[in-house]
Amino acid sequence: MTAEQIHDIGRRRAWVIWLVSLAVYVLAVFHRSSLGVAGIIASERFDISATRLATFTVLQLVVYAGMQVPVGVLLDRYGSRAMLLAGLVLMTAGQLGFAFSTSFGWAVASRAVVGAGDAMVFVSVIRLVTIWFLVRQAPMVTQLTGLTGQLGAIAAAGPLSYLLHHLGWTRTFALTSSFGVVLLVAVLALVKDSPYRRDQVVAIKLRALAQSVRTVWGNPGTRLGMWSHFASQFSVTVFALLWGYPFLVQGLGWSSAEASTLLMAMTAWAVVSGLALARLVGRLPYYRSWIVVSVVITMVVPWTAVLLWPGVAPTGLVVVMAFATASGGPASMVGFDLARSFTPPHETGRANGLVNIGGFTASLLTMALIGVVLDLTASGGMETYTLGDFKLAMSVQYVFWTLGVVQTLRYRRRGLAHLARVHPGSVEQMRAGHPFVHPGIGTEGV
Question: What is the CATH number of domain 12-195+209-431?
Answer without folding.
Answer: 1.20.1250.20
